[in-house]
């Protein structure tokens, strides 16, 4: 009798197995472990006030993380998001100081954010300038230009009775309103990416441009759309920021930490810089992890420089893990990436 042929058994490497694991669940586990460490080493860490503070302070960079994730899922990168958020807060309060009504100020600034998103998307998608350089340049231009040409104060405080304050003022059924706002944005973002045809096309585009075109996706307009949505989310994050903190500085010192925190929560949550991979569940997990970490660094009185070192190391580790789990080869690499 002849030997019966058997199909070769596929061997999966550790990297291939880990690449198919939902990274968000792993990060949730890391967050719980970090909370245990905090409870054992820090008095009052598990108090309701401290836990509530962690959640409320995480909302701003969590929303920016969603914005960053939407662009990255489409194989892009937006480094102007923090600038848009900060400028949104600054310009709105300056317009109100100049006696423009709050509603009109918000409308003008949101339109300004939309234009920034359109410019970013057009330059990246149609002019084909790498997103890294495009968005870094627009972010610096917007931040510096508004500071030099328009702003007149060093610190802007939110006026009493402002509608913006309603975003995070008080609680509903004992839950801080800021947390509910953040949860709503995460829910809407998850529904958009997971259950709408546009969201699925964005993921397909990020995974492979040619496949997305074969599915009938208008790739270039979709790229523009991701930057527009991200800019509008960044503007909303700016309003959440001033609603939570009641003021905003006109210096650029808040730009870098906010930017890199937004990118960190997306990448550490499993949104791959290669595009098309990742979930907003992972972004939520990354937001909670970074929020707890920030809180512990402050409670243990680490210097600002030390905190920057820790955050930088965390971002580098997240990028290195992403590169290892999702390597780019000559077949998948695109000339217009990042």
Shape: globular
Under CATH at level 1, the class stands as: Mainly Alpha
**Overall residue-averaged pLDDT value:** 85
In CATH terms, what is the architecture?
Orthogonal Bundle
- Report the end-to-end length measured between terminal Cα atoms: 59 Å
Radius of gyration: 21 Å
Largest sheet: 2 strands, antiparallel
Tally of separate helices? 13
The name CATH uses for the topology is ABC transporter involved in vitamin B12 uptake, BtuC
Counted beta strands? 4
Strands in their spatial order, largest beta sheet = 1-4
Tell me the helix content. 55-70%
Question: How much of the sequence is in beta strands?
Answer: under 5%
Series of H and E elements: HHHHHHEEEHHHHEHHH
SSE class: mainly alpha
Low-confidence stretches: 7-11, 330-337
The domain tally reads 1
């Amino acid at each position: 009798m002849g030997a019966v042929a058997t199909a070769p058994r596929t061997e999966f490497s550790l990297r291939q197995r880990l690449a198919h694991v939902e990274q968000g669940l792993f990060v949730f586990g890391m967050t719980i472990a970090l909370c245990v460490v905090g409870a054992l080493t820090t008095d009052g860490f598990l108090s309701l006030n401290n836990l509530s503070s962690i959640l409320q302070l995480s909302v701003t960079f969590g929303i920016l993380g969603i914005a960053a994730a939407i662009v990255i899922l489409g194989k892009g990168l937006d480094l102007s998001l923090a600038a848009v958020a900060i400028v949104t807060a600054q310009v709105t309060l300056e317009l109100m100081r100049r006696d423009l009504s709050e509603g009109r100020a918000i409308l003008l600034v949101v339109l300004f954010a939309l234009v920034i998103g359109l410019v970013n998307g057009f330059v990246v998608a149609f002019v084909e300038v790498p997103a890294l350089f495009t968005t870094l340049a627009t972010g610096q231009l917007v931040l510096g230009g508004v500071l030099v040409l328009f702003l007149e104060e060093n610190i802007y405080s939110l006026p009493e009775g402002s509608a913006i304050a309603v975003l995070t003022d008080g609680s509903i059924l004992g839950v801080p309103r800021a947390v509910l706002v953040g949860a709503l944005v995460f829910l809407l973002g998850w529904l958009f990416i997971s259950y709408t045809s546009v969201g699925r096309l964005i993921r397909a585009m990020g995974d492979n441009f040619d496949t997305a075109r074969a599915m009938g996706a208008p790739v270039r307009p979709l790229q523009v759309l991701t930057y527009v949505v991200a800019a509008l989310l960044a503007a909303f994050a700016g309003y959440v920021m001033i609603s939570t903190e009641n003021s905003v500085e006109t210096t650029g010192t808040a730009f870098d930490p906010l930017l890199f925190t937004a990118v960190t929560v997306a990448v550490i949550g499993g949104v791959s810089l290669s595009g098309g991979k990742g979930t907003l569940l992972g972004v939520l997990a990354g937001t909670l992890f970074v929020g707890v970490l920030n809180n512990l660094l402050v409670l243990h009185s680490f210097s600002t420089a030390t905190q920057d070192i820790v955050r930088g190391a965390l971002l580098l580790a997240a990028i290195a893990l992403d590169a290892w789990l999702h390597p780019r080869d000559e077949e998948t690499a695109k000339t217009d990436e990042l």
